[in-house]
Write a sequence for this structure.
């Protein structure tokens, strides 16, 4: 989970806490590991590049991504879509 924007660090922390609480002993197994990062001082293009290029590790090579935009900022939406097209085209 990668958070960007207002209160990005709070989103990151909330997901971390929810993940830990998903196990009755507060110790989820490694195979359910959830990596979280926040990017409050980066551009949208940097965020998209990181999401598509910086999250593969070990045997995990992701090909499908989901970006969720909360709110109705058309400028951010446009920049996100442009950045996605740029990164995915090479």
């Amino acid at each position: 989970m990668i958070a960007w924007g207002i209160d990005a660090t709070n989103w990151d922390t909330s997901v971390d806490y929810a993940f830990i609480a998903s196990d009755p002993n507060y110790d989820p197994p490694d195979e359910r590991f959830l990596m979280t990062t926040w990017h409050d001082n980066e551009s949208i293009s940097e965020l998209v590049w990181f999401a598509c290029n910086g999250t593969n590790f070990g045997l995990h090579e992701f090909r499908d991504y989901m970006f969720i935009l909360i709110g109705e900022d058309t400028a951010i939406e446009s920049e996100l879509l442009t950045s996605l097209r740029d990164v995915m085209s090479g």
In short: Residues 45 and 64 are 18 Å apart (CA to CA). The first strand starts at residue 2 and ends at 4. The chain has two domains: 1-41, 43-90. Residues 43-90 form one domain.
